[in-house]
Fold this protein.
Amino acid sequence: MAEEFYVRYYVGHMGRFGHEFLEFEFRSDGKLRYANNSNYKNDSMIRKEVYVSPSVVNELRRVIQESEIMKEDDKLWPMPDRVGRQELEVVLNNEHISFTTSKIGSLADVQDSKDPEGLRVFYYLVQDLKCLVFSLIALHFKVSPGVTTLP
Amino acid sequence: MGDVAMDVDAQPTLKRKGRGFQHDGGREQELKKEGFDSVDEEGSGSAQRSVEGWIIIVTGVHEEATEEDIMERFNEYGHVKGMHLNLDRRTGFVKGYALVEYDTYKEAKTAIDGENGKDFLGHAIHCDFAFSRGPVGGARVQQNGGGRRGGRR
């Protein structure tokens, strides 16, 4: 049986244009789901799904493993607020993390937090994950993943 | 109720950590809804065609590799019409993978067969199709994956 593996990331907020968010998940069977709703300038909801190959899943697993995010804890991270929230959920090697925090505008926010080392791991991992997912979605569907209003 | 998407009760052996496990009213899980678009294209074997061609993933890419290095190597199998060589956001070096796009199945397949396991700047690289026609490692292995209606464009 394939080892349990799962990744989900969410960033979003409730604002002038309603619920604007980006969310994606990978399941251990390779299913990638991607949803992006930005109502700004009449952008509409993008919802895509595709199966990625085991090689892509393995690469994703490597990126997460090497980040050492599983060693971190969100207990000292900024709480989600009106500006927005981020969620990162990962199941890997019999560990299940589900971290929640506010949006992070820049590295300065990381440095000023109570857990700069942990938050920095999160900050960079999230960018690396988004980067992979945007490439996959852009190449497969030939759409811009539509990230205009998101950090 | 909570924000956790996985059915955690079904995974009692998992060690849990994080505030996401606390119920805080939560929000609707967008990913659990229906109505996700997928590419309605034939595949070939277990590989899935993308809207405008075939995408392969190359892993084990040296951190100092350049787009030119990849281009030079993979253009030998056909015209590389697109490429993403993403960088590590912290270090600025290559993250370790490249996505390479070809027009035809044949070009992509020849590149995979020709480069998988080969040395690239001192590292062995691994090459494979990036997208698949269905679940991997599961019971639903597709039997009839030949792409009869011109899947092998």
Notes: The helical segments of chain A are 54-67, 107-111, 116-141.
